[in-house]
Amino acid sequence: MSTPPEPTGLVFDDPLDQPSPDDTDRGWGDRPATVSSAADLARFLDEKPPHHL
Q: Where do the record's region annotations for Disordered lie (predicted)?
């Protein structure tokens, strides 16, 4: 059986100083911006629930 890793020290850094995935639109599931209107329509149809069409 292997030995457990040595415990590391406590880190008292401020977690709010570091960017999180939620700080960007990508963290909320947004896709990169596209320039074509066909891509905008496809995204609209993909994301819109059927009762909103």
A: 1-33
